[in-house]
Every structure is written in C-alpha cells, then in structure tokens.
Design a protein that fits this description.
CATH architecture of the largest domain: Alpha-Beta Complex
Number of helices: 11
Order of helices and strands: HHHHHEEHHHHEEHH
CATH superfamily of the largest domain: Nitrile hydratase alpha /Thiocyanate hydrolase gamma
CATH topology of the largest domain: Nitrile Hydratase, Chain A
Strand order of the largest sheet: 1-4
Number of domains: 2
Strand content: 5-15%
Structural class: alpha/beta
Number of strands: 4
Helix content: 40-55%
Radius of gyration: 21 Å
CATH class of the largest domain: Alpha Beta
C-alpha cells in the first residue's frame, strides 16, 4: 500500500511534492514524435535542438534594453521601431522569428501596459522568460478591468490625467513598451541608458530607473 506523505516533511526538511509521473499529453507526444522524425531524417540533431533550447532559456531583458536605449538615442531608429518593431529588432541582431512585434510608445499623455489574457504570450526574444505573475490569472484578468489598481500594486501610481491603454498579446503578435527616457540622461551613453531600462518598464507595470 503506497505511503501517503501528505502534510509530512521529507528527510531534507522540505514538504513532499506530488510525483509528476502522469501520462504525457497529446501535445507532448506530438512534440516528441516530430523531434524524433526531424533527427531521423537528419534535418537537425539532438545537439542542435538542445543548443536552441539553451539559447532561448538564456535570453534576458538586456536584449530589450538594448533596443530601448537605441531608440532613445537614435530618432531614425526609434521611428523604424514604432513602424515595424520586428525588423528594427533584427537590425540589432535579435531574431523575432515569424512573430509580429509592436512597440508601444509611452508619452506624457499615454501609458501602455501589456498582457496576454488567454495564456502567457510574451516577447521572450527580447525579455526572456515571463515572470510568474504575468502568467497568473489574477494579473491577466484584473489588469484589463482595473489597470490603475493593479499598477498601483506594482508601485506605479499614475496621474489621473494620464490615459492608460492595455494591449492584449496573441499567439502571433507581441508587444513591447517603449518607456519615456528618464530626465537628466541627455549626456548618457547608450550603454549607460541600457542599465536604466527594466523588464517591468518594457511590460508597462513599472518605469525605468531614474538617473
């Protein structure tokens, strides 16, 4: 008879967790089948697949910070970013793939914030893995209904005369927020500006660091 470890502590001092040995889902089986076929037909290799996974896991918000800092210092690049963010990102070596990326500019009258109400679609190519709170139902539902309340919980208390716009990502379309450049950074280098750009400021739930 299996032992029930509920409410018990393991020898390491941590609570027991349920085993994740349930059957594979349809999509997991499909992924395995397609991967094995690609390797069998020598279209790719297991090493190439693992290297691609590692590359994806190693993406960080510093990629997005490079894009934002470039837009802050180069007016022509900023215009290209707002016109076609996918192509503008590729200019700096960030492959967006087939996704459509849209850059949303914050101004003195408009503040943008992004969400994915259905799941967790997110510009991973530029921001890395999404934070846990971005994937939670609480954020996904409440940011649409009461954005100012949610933003205040993040420490962002916006003026009442500032319009807040919430943008819902989709499976084939992502957003990135172009925050306003901090005051007092007129003489900052691009590299110095990159350090002021935060992940939350590119999602819209925060602002860049002050100079």
């Amino acid at each position: 008879m299996p032992h029930d470890h509920n409410n018990e502590m393991s020898p390491s001092g941590h609570p027991y967790r349920k085993d994740q040995d349930h059957p594979l889902t349809y999509w997991q089986n499909l992924e395995i089948a397609v991967r094995e076929i690609l390797v069998e037909k020598k279209i790719t290799t297991e090493i190439e697949i693992q290297e691609t996974i590692n590359e994806m896991d190693n993406r960080t918000p510093s990629n997005g910070a490079t894009v934002i800092a470039k837009a802050w210092t180069d007016p022509s690049y900023k215009q290209r970013l707002l016109t076609n963010a996918s192509d503008a990102s590729r200019e700096l070596g960030f492959d967006i793939g087939p996704l459509k990326l849209i850059a949303l500019e914050n101004t003195k009258s408009i503040h943008n914030v992004i969400v994915c109400t259905l799941c967790s679609c997110y510009p991973r190519n530029l921001l890395g893995l999404p934070p846990d709170w971005y994937k939670q139902r609480s954020y996904r539902s409440r940011i649409v209904k009461t954005p100012r309340t949610v933003l205040k919980e993040f420490g962002l208390d916006l003026p009442k005369d500032l319009s807040v716009r919430v943008h819902d990502s989709t499976a084939d379309m992502r957003y990135i927020v172009l925050p306003m450049r901090p005051h007092g950074t007129e003489n900052f280098s691009t590299q110095a500006l990159e350090k002021l750009v935060t992940r939350d400021s590119m999602i819209g739930v925060g602002l860049p660091k002050s100079a």
